[in-house]
């Protein structure tokens, strides 16, 4: 009994403060959570819409669990890019992430309706080095992926960036960041396609 | 007489944060955000305002409960208080300034371990009344914010030719212009060099003023 009293005497302020601050955070979170979620969705959809301009809406599919190799797994929320009014599927978009040079890189990947060709990628978040690694956001690098096969891509140090094939020319001075982007795309594209095929989503046409 | 003494103390406390106890230039506290988010003025200003919010709220809360604090639990209480207000600032940025929140990345949550805030809780708010703690928080916060903005303005101007993302220097290009941006200024090396020069400048001014 004495020990309990001692514990309460010493720590009552901490217990009360934890409860009060926790309540304050819960109220704040409840007030702004919808807005934060809407911002997140808007950001994804604005990036995805730039990659699939024919899409008028993005329909959220059920989350799928994908095997990324090396024992890594991730849950991916695929969005179906839909053209109104006949609800034709014009592509698919999903988020993918992996390690970059400085920090995690998060991308939006878009593919065509048949999952055969990449529509390209956009950067959702990255902290790559300004002036070097952040050039993965530049059009001359990203354009190499538009129309590339949705298969394993290879990074090369020299080549013709305007030629669209499975070879991606690295950014000079940012090989690690270029490699990271190609690695993320290679890890996710095959895994998501396999999972979607298992679900019977690809080539459903509508 | 007492009112006059209080006014003097208030103004002395406020000015201390701006100059002779400036958290960055004199106390060398909060170096992590100082170096990391000053590549441009906008993120530096956002960081500064977030720190002011957290500093004011935590100083007020700590001052209000200063008589109840147990010495061995005080650091834990400070951390709990600071973490709460940092989380609120982080949620606010995510809800209302999502692009800035993304740009600042982990540095907003890292305000929790910003030495400026815990230092003010320990040296001022836990020993003083509400008014002085509030004035101290505003003075220190403004001193921190102004320093970050000056540092960021120099780096952004020399690194991109812009301030507040508005063109100031004519950048060399097909349309003319003579200024070639010093990319190093927006890289970490630019932060260290600019901060070093600012510290040197402040020391020089202080020495001359005293002389």
In terms of quaternary structure, what is this?
A: heterodimer
Write down how many β-strands of chain B occur, each being a DSSP E stretch of 2 or more residues: 2
Distance between the termini of chain B: 33 Å
Strand arrangement across the biggest beta sheet of chain B: 1-2
Mean pLDDT of chain A: 90
The overall average pLDDT of chain B, rounded, is 92
What is the succession of H and E elements of chain A? HEEEEEEEHEEH
* Low-pLDDT windows of residues of chain A: none
- Helices of chain B, by number, come to 8
Evaluate the radius of gyration of chain A.
22 Å
What is the molecular shape of chain B? globular
Note the gap between the termini of chain A: 70 Å
By DSSP (H or I, 4+ residues per run), the number of helices of chain A equals 3
Greatest interface (CB-CB under 8 A), with counts per chain: A-B, 23 and 25 residues
If you had to describe this structure to a student in words, what would you say it looks like?
The complex is a heterodimer of chains A (206) and B (211). With 206 residues, chain A is of the alpha+beta class. Chain A has a domain at 56-199. Chain A is built from 3 helices and 9 strands. In chain A, a hairpin with a 4-residue loop joins strand 4 (79-83) and strand 5. Chain A is globular and about 80 Å long. The model of chain A has no long low-confidence stretch (mean pLDDT 90). Chain B starts with a helix and ends with a helix. The longest helix of chain B has 31 residues, at 130-160. Chain B has one domain (30-210). The mean pLDDT of chain B is 92. Chain B is globular, with a radius of gyration of 19 Å. In chain B, strands 1-2 form a two-stranded antiparallel sheet. In chain B, helix 3 (41-64) runs parallel beside helix 6 (115-125) and helix 6 runs antiparallel to helix 7 (130-160). Chain B has 8 helices and 2 strands. Chain B is mostly helical and 211 residues long. In chain B, strand 1 (162-163) and strand 2 (166-167) form a beta hairpin. At the A-B interface, helix 1 of A face helix 4 of B.
């Amino acid at each position: 009994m004495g020990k309990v009293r001692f514990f309460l005497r010493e720590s009552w302020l901490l217990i009360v403060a934890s409860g009060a601050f926790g309540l304050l955070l819960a109220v704040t979170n409840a007030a702004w959570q919808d807005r934060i979620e809407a911002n997140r969705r808007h950001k994804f959809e604005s990036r995805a819409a730039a990659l699939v301009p024919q899409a008028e809406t993005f329909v959220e599919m059920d989350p799928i669990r994908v095997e990324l190799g090396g024992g890594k797994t991730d849950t991916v929320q695929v969005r179906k890019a839909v053209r109104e009014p006949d609800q034709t599927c014009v592509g698919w978009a999903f988020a993918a992430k992996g390690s970059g040079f400085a920090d995690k890189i998060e991308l939006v990947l878009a593919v065509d309706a048949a999952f055969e060709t990449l529509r390209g990628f956009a950067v959702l978040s990255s902290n790559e080095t300004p002036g070097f690694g952040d050039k993965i956001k530049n059009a001359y690098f990203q354009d190499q992926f538009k129309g590339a096969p949705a298969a394993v891509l290879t990074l090369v140090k020299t080549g013709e960036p305007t030629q669209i094939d499975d070879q991606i020319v690295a950014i000079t001075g940012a090989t690690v960041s270029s490699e990271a982007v190609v690695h993320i795309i290679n890890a996710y594209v095959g895994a998501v396609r396999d999972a979607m095929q298992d679900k019977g989503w690809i080539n459903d046409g509508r | 007489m007492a009112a006059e003494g209080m006014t003097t103390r208030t103004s002395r406390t406020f000015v201390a944060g701006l100059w002779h106890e400036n958290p960055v230039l004199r106390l060398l506290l909060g170096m992590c955000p100082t170096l990391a988010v000053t590549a441009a003025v906008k993120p530096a200003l956002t960081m500064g305002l977030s720190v002011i919010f957290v500093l004011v709220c935590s100083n007020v809360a700590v001052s209000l409960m200063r008589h109840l604090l147990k010495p061995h639990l005080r650091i834990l209480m400070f951390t709990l208080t600071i973490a709460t207000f940092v989380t609120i600032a982080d949620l606010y940025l995510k809800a209302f300034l999502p692009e800035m929140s993304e740009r600042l990345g982990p540095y907003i949550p890292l305000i929790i371990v910003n030495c400026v805030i815990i230092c003010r809780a320990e040296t001022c708010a836990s020993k003083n009344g509400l008014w002085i703690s509030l004035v101290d928080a505003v003075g220190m916060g403004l001193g921190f914010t102004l320093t970050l903005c000056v540092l960021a303005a120099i780096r952004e101007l020399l690194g991109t030719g812009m301030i507040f993302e508005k063109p100031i220097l004519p950048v060399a290009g097909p349309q003319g212009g003579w200024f070639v941006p010093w990319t190093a200024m927006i890289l970490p090396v630019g932060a260290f060099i600019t901060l070093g020069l600012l510290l040197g400048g402040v020391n020089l001014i202080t020495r001359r003023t005293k002389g």
